[in-house]
Structure formats: structure tokens, C-alpha cells
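Page 37, continued from 36.
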């Protein structure tokens, strides 16, 4: 398969691209509109300066060249959610071009080229009902950047890795919240197939507006299979736009795919050229904080994390910020373990990262208590669950729930001696070379002490008493 992706990102501005209407999500239909975004005759657009700054920021963060003097163009087509019957976009002079991002997939590194990043206005939203279709123009004029990749992607897994990395970079750059469930980060998939070893590209299809990583993976795998079946049956793949139906797990043809000349692009006569000076470029570049790859390197070099651990922790800026605050209170490695196992488990979806209900310092203190042998790892799991439900301090929970580790050697020796006497068959199995028998005895001690015995001390005492 050969894949190129077109990603639409809603920019996090307070107002629309050409007017002062609010961009706030979730307002009642058609309450955030004016003559400009409704395309009424005589209305004139004024470009939002922040849109240009944000687009250039995205370009710098993805290693693009920046166009010093660009323009905006009208893309002409008729659809009910496009009030003006044209969309203001960019054609031959996009703001950013010829960039790339690097991804890792199955321990291999790949460089995915970025053809262009351009600004454009969003269209309205169609709501289909049994009685017809309704139009909400609140979204019309919301500022977008479109990020177009080169056809460098060769699998659904690579596509997912690229999108996750791109989403992470955009969020670190601070230009969009990238909430996929609200349409702030959505993707069109261009896919074709060719015989292995061939350099000739096949006929591509486009699947529009996919807004979930899992949907994208399923849609790619399904379309790949469909195109192969079409070719092997002796038919030809048609260049068309298709709609992915998640419930049915298949795509359906919507319309034949247009080429650029079908849109009759021409420069928008109501909008001035976009000029990016060297001074402006430096100002934007200096405003970009540390990006995911730089943070990943720091976590590996300074904190001793593995590439996998670091990758997971830098995937979202909020997660990375949370982790760094927690590390101020406790061991970097232990905090990472707690984040990756317990916090991520309770968090669920990536988009809900900001829903961690307790301060990062509490996770750091929890890691410190593990390091001090006050509590065990298994107890830490329960404490994270309790922190999720209440706003208590870690030490308060430890005392109230009686979670302190048993480190009294005499007490543990008594428990373990009795256990050895009662389980001679298991002890004999261990002495005969069965390591699992030893772990079974450790597990018995943990059950008897309700998980409060120090695992390392338990193993040490058990080993000494068995070999006496």
C-alpha cells in the first residue's frame, strides 16, 4: 500500500479566520455567525494575524521551509455547508512546504515527508435527519491548517504512528487542543496499491474526515483489501472519495475525486499578500517550547528511561508536564512506572489526559514512599485508585488504610517459619529446582499479611530459612 495523509487541524484561536465570531465549541446552532462567515454579499474578510503565526509555528515544528511572501486563493465548489460556494485556502504558495517528521515503528525509524502546510477556513456542519438536512454555520470560518504528507507511508501502523507524532507536535507547539472527538484533529486518507518492487503509483482513493486512530487503522486495512480484490478480479480502481462507516466496517463511494483544476483556483482579490519577515520568523521560532523528541532524549539521558517509556510519556504535553512535576518529589524511574501502569490504566483514552484528578506532586510523594520501603508496589496501585476518588494526601491514605509495609524481621521470620512447616511439599519442589514453588511461598506470605509484607525482605528471609 501507498498512503498519503491530509490532516486538518483547528487552530486554537478565540475568533474565526476572517471575522470576529467566536470559535467556542458546543454553542447552539447558528449563534456564532455574521455576514462575513455566512458569505453575505458585500461582506469583506480580514485575516486573523494569529492564524498566520500558528501556521508558521506548525511549519517550523515540522522542519518545513517558510514562504516569505504568500497569498490566499479561492477554491471553488458548491456544497450546502459552504455558504459562499468557494473556500478560501492556499494553492501554489502555501505558508509552509518541504518538511518532515521522524517516526518509530517496530523499532525502525522512518522519515515521513510533509509536502505543505496551508491555512484555510472550515465549512459549516450538515446534520442529516429523516426530514432532510440541517446546516449549522457556527463552524464556517473556523481557522484550519491542512498538513499534507508525501506518499511515504506503507502500513496502517505507520499511519497511526505518524498521526500520533504529528498530533503530539501540534499540541506541544500550543496551537490546537487536537481533540479528535470535537473534530479539532481529523484526517483524510489517500490510499493506492501497487505491485511490490514497482515504482508506478496506482489509482488512489480518498476517505474523508476520520477522527479516531482506531477508525483510521481499520479504514486503511479495509480499503487496502478492497482495492486488491478489485484489481485481482480484473477491474480497475476508480479515483473517488469514499466514506468510512465504522458500524459496518467498510467504506462507500461518495463521489468521483476532483483534481486541482476542477476547483478553478484563483487568488482571492479581497485579501492582501501574506508577508513573513526574517524578524517575524525568528520571533515565532523563539516562542516554540521544547518539542517531544527533545523531551524524549532528556528522559532517556537524564532519567534513565527506555525509549518506549520516554515515548509514552512525551506523547501528550500535559502528561509530560505532569511527569516532570512529579519527578521533583520522587524517583524518575518509579514515577514513570506509576504513570505508565496505574495512571494510564485509569485514564483510558489519550484525549482524556487532562482529567487526572490529583496534583502531580502526590504521585511523586507516592514514588518516594515506595523508594523508602514505606509501602509496596501493590499498595501503590491501591493508593493511586484512592487518589483518583479523593483529594487526600498520600501519607494520610497510608495511615488511614493501614498500608505501611511490614519490615519487622522477627515478625516476618515467625510467619515464614510457620509457612515452611505447613508446606513441606512446596518447599521440596523448590529444592528440586522448581522456581515457581518459591514464588508460590512468597505469594502465601503476601496473602497472610494482606499485601503488607516487604516483598524483597520476604524473599530474602524465605531463601535463608529454606536453605538452612
Amino acid at each position: 500500500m501507498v498512503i498519503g495523509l491530509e490532516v486538518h487541524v483547528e487552530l486554537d484561536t478565540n475568533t474565526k479566520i476572517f471575522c470576529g465570531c467566536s470559535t467556542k465549541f458546543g454553542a447552539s446552532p447558528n449563534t456564532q455567525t455574521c455576514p462575513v462567515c455566512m458569505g453575505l454579499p458585500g461582506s469583506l474578510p480580514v485575516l486573523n494575524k494569529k492564524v498566520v503565526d500558528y501556521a508558521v509555528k506548525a511549519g517550523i515544528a515540522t522542519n518545513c521551509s517558510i514562504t516569505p511572501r504568500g497569498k490566499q486563493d479561492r477554491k471553488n465548489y458548491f456544497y450546502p455547508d459552504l455558504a459562499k460556494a468557494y473556500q478560501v485556502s492556499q494553492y501554489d504558495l502555501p505558508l509552509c512546504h518541504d518538511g518532515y517528521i521522524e517516526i518509530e515503528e517496530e523499532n525502525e525509524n522512518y522519515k515521513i515527508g510533509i509536502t505543505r502546510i496551508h491555512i484555510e477556513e472550515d465549512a459549516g456542519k450538515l446534520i442529516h435527519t429523516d426530514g432532510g438536512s440541517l446546516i449549522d454555520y457556527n463552524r464556517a470560518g473556523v481557522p484550519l491548517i491542512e498538513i499534507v504528507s508525501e506518499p511515504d507511508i506503507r502500513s496502517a501502523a505507520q499511519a497511526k504512528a505518524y498521526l500520533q507524532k504529528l498530533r503530539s507536535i501540534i499540541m506541544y507547539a500550543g496551537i490546537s487542543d487536537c481533540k479528535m472527538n470535537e473534530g479539532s484533529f481529523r484526517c483524510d486518507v489517500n490510499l493506492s496499491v501497487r505491485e511490490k518492487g514497482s515504482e508506478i503509483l496506482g489509482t488512489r482513493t480518498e476517505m474523508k474526515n476520520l477522527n479516531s486512530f482506531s477508525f483510521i487503522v481499520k479504514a486503511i486495512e479495509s480499503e487496502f483489501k478492497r482495492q486488491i480484490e478489485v484489481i485481482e478480479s480484473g477491474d480497475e480502481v476508480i479515483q473517488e472519495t469514499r466514506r468510512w462507516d465504522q458500524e459496518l466496517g467498510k467504506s462507500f463511494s461518495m463521489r468521483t475525486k476532483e483534481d486541482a483544476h476542477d476547483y478553478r483556483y484563483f487568488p482571492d482579490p479581497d485579501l492582501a499578500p501574506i508577508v513573513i519577515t526574517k524578524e517575524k520568523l525568528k520571533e515565532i521560532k523563539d516562542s516554540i517550547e521544547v518539542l517531544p523528541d527533545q523531551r524524549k532524549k532528556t528522559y532517556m539521558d537524564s532519567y534513565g528511561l527506555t525509549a518506549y517509556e520516554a515515548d509514552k510519556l512525551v506523547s501528550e504535553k500535559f502528561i509530560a508536564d505532569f511527569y516532570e512535576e512529579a519527578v521533583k518529589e520522587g524517583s524518575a524511574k518509579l514515577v514513570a512506572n506509576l504513570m505508565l501502569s496505574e495512571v494510564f490504566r485509569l485514564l483510558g483514552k489519550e484525549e482524556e489526559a487532562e482529567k487526572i484528578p490529583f496534583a502531580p506532586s502526590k504521585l511523586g510523594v507516592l514514588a518516594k514512599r515506595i523508594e523508602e520501603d514505606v509501602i509496596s508496589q501493590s499498595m501503590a496501585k491501591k493508593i493511586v485508585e484512592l487518589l483518583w476518588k479523593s483529594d487526600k494526601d498520600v501519607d494520610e491514605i497510608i495511615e488511614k488504610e493501614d498500608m505501611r509495609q511490614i519490615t519487622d524481621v522477627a515478625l516476618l521470620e515467625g510467619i515464614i517459619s510457620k509457612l515452611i512447616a505447613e508446606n513441606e511439599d512446596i518447599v521440596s519442589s523448590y529444592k528440586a529446582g522448581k522456581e515457581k514453588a518459591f514464588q508460590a511461598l512468597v505469594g502465601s506470605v503476601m496473602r497472610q499479611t494482606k499485601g503488607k509484607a516487604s516483598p524483597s525482605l520476604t524473599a530474602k528471609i524465605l531463601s535463608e530459612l529454606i536453605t538452612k
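Residues 2-284 form one domain. Flag for discussion at group meeting. The radius of gyration is 29 Å.
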